[in-house]
Each structure stands twice: as structure tokens, then as C-alpha cells.
Write a structure and sequence with these properties.
Blueprint: H1 2-11, H2 15-38, E1 49-53, E2 61-66, E3 69-74, E4 88-92, E5 98-102
Antiparallel strand pairs: 1-2, 2-3, 4-5
Length: 103
């Protein structure tokens, strides 16, 4: 009879539930680490890339990663307008090369 009480006490041990929760959290952490490692914006990747969000719209954003530098550009919403001045003329020759002639 005393042996039966010991077996029931082990089955109702609350620490076993905690061990199962720790296992579940370890699996979740491993999945999140894999997701971060596969993300192109991750700081652990050495690849260069360009990411365009909302292309052609007024709220377009461009994210450029080259080596260790990360540049972020946001569209002003006004397409083809700005405060620049004409600096010269570019010509495309028949062989496909470009020539820039400053004014």
C-alpha cells in the first residue's frame, strides 16, 4: 500500500509540468532564431540587397543594405518634383554607351 502512494505522488508532481513548459519555450525560441537568421535584413547576413516597400505609391520606401551600411529612403509623395537644377545633357550613342555633356 505504501508503494502505491509513492507512485501517485510522482504522477502529481508539479515540477513535471514546469519541465514540459521549458521544453515548449525552447522550441519557440529555436523557431524565432531561425526566422531571424533567414530574414534578409538580418545583421548576420553578408549579402547586399535592395528592398522596396509599396512600389509606385506615395508612401514608397527603399531600404538598401551594402555590407555593413543600411540606408533608408522615404518617398516625398510628389513624383518628379524637387528643387534641383539642370546640370547637363546625357546622350546615348548607337553602341549603347552614354555621354554626359555639362552645361
Amino acid at each position: 500500500m505504501s508503494l502505491r502512494l509513492l507512485e501517485e505522488a510522482e504522477a502529481d508532481d508539479p515540477i513535471l509540468s514546469v519541465v514540459n513548459l521549458i521544453d515548449v519555450f525552447l522550441v519557440i525560441i529555436a523557431a524565432l532564431l531561425l526566422a531571424v537568421a533567414n530574414n534578409p535584413v538580418s545583421p548576420f547576413t553578408q549579402e547586399d540587397f535592395t528592398l522596396i516597400k509599396n512600389p509606385g505609391q506615395a508612401n514608397m520606401e527603399i531600404l538598401i543594405k551594402q555590407g555593413e551600411t543600411l540606408e533608408h529612403y522615404t518617398a516625398s509623395g510628389e513624383i518628379g518634383e524637387g528643387e534641383g537644377a539642370r546640370a547637363g545633357i546625357a546622350y546615348r550613342l548607337q553602341d549603347g554607351s552614354m555621354i554626359y555633356v555639362p552645361e
